[in-house]
Amino acid sequence: MSLIFASTSSAAGLTQLNNYFASNTYVFGLTLSAADAALFTAIGATAPDAKKYPHVARYHNHIASFSADERSAAPAVEGLSVAIGAATVGGGAKKGGDDSDSGIDDLFGDDDSDDDSEDPIAAAKAKAEAAKKAKAGHKKAPIAKSRIVFEIKPFDAETDLEALAVKVKAQKLEGDFWDDKLENCEDARCSLAEGCKWGEGHHLQPVAFGIFKLVVQVIVQDDLVGSDDLIDMMMDSFEDDIQSIDVAAFDKAS
């Protein structure tokens, strides 16, 4: 089955995308997939107008926060794909499939069926989750991880947020505090080196009166690191630069 978007450039197509991402973080399921990488490429390097299409802009910026290597390595969801118009551009469509058959559902078009009992978007999500669980059943469960997006507000407009981004993403889990937490970690595979992985991308978002906030993301091991731990670490390290830190998003990465 393919999730079909009419266009990634026309007003109608962007409105369609905006409606979809008003209630979805990713194209399928709760993690990055090949479908997101394909849709990101189709949208292009620049996010659409955030005033007209806020949810598409937020989605584009979120996917941009992943490195190119992370996007290219994103797994396909078996049996599901994303298409722009009639062309399938990414996902996990089965080999030998024909996009002209009933395997493609336009989740935004008119429903000519008399059976309205099943929500096609919910069905696509359920199928993605089922495929994920089936795959997980054949190998050792991964370490539980979460993706946290932080919004960092500076004290004033003079703060160099690009320089601050470099310093924030250089932060590592060091010291007795983290050693103690590591000893109590329920998963023996937890490690300080892998417990906190900052995303390569970041962006600046306007607040008011010429002041911007820094938006960064990090992948953490759930048994080892919490959002409050990282907020305290950043505030202690950069108390002269940071006024406050908010959690903009917190979702499971595994």
Name some characteristics of this structure.
single chain, 254 residues, Alpha-Beta Plaits, 8 helices, three-stranded mixed beta sheet, alpha+beta, four-stranded antiparallel beta sheet, 32% helix
Task: Average the pLDDT over all residues and give the rounded result.
Answer: 80
Percent of residues in β-strands: 15-25%
Number of helices: 8
Main beta-sheet annotation: 4 strands, antiparallel
Spatial arrangement of strands, main beta sheet: 5-6-4-7
Distance between the termini: 24 Å
Number of domains: 2
Task: Return the structural class.
Answer: alpha+beta
Structure summary, number of beta strands:
7
Coarse shape: flat
The value of Rg in angstroms is: 20 Å
Order of helices and strands: EHHHHEEHEHHEEHE
- Low-confidence runs: 93-117
Q: What is the element layout, followed by pairings?
A:
Blueprint: E1 2-5, H1 11-21, H2 34-43, H3 54-64, H4 68-72, E2 81-84, E3 87-91, H5 120-136, E4 145-154, H6 161-168, H7 176-183, E5 196-208, E6 211-221, H8 227-237, E7 242-252
Parallel strand pairs: 1-2
Antiparallel strand pairs: 2-3, 4-6, 4-7, 5-6
Helix pairs in contact: 1-3
Describe this structure in words.
With 254 residues, this protein is α+β, with helices and mostly antiparallel strands. It folds into two domains: 2-136, no CATH class; 145-252, Ribosomal protein S6/Translation elongation factor EF1B (Alpha-Beta Plaits), CATH 3.30.70. The chain has eight helices and seven strands; from the N terminus they run βααααββαβααββαβ. It has helices at residues 11-21, 34-43, 54-64, 68-72, 120-136, 161-168, 176-183, 227-237; strands at residues 2-5, 81-84, 87-91, 145-154, 196-208, 211-221, 242-252. The strands form two sheets. A four-stranded antiparallel β-sheet has the order 5-6-4-7, covered by helices on one side. The two termini are 24 Å apart. The model is unreliable at 93-117 (pLDDT under 50).
